[in-house]
Design a protein that fits this description.
single chain; 164 residues; alpha/beta; four-stranded parallel β-sheet; two-stranded antiparallel sheet; 6 helices; 6 strands; 39% helix
Length: 164
Amino acid sequence: MLFMKNALFDGLLANADPASRFATIPDESGDRWYTYQDVFDVSARIANTLVNMGVKPGDRVAVQVPKSIEAIMLYLATVRAGAVFLPLNTGYTVPEIRYFLENATPSLFICDPAKRDDFAGLLKDLDIRLETLGVWKNHDESAGTLADVALDASTEFENIERSG
């Protein structure tokens, strides 16, 4: 793991033991869990994916996804990429989302896969890239377009330098 000076990411995870458990997520098929090493690896994959999708330091990444470990990984990846994470309430309607997107001008909007069709036309009109991220259920079911691409990305990522 190579860490550049990224004040927020370093502050959150600088003293983490890679072998220690980060989170346990109960689900129907038994608990799934993540170590800190998993956090470093998954957030690196997503950070690489964000950068490959054109996200640059200082860009806003608007997000309307369910509360999940996947959303936490996306948050950490956005921080690692030097971008700004803009969380949007899952209860917001399309007109409300339009307001935020027109004013925040993000380079990327990520929504729940179930809502992709609701936003496709809006994002095309606003010239904002649309990706999806849901909750992982099993190996046979996609967790969204962002997750699908990130599966093939590298677990190595050089954090973008950001000051406090």
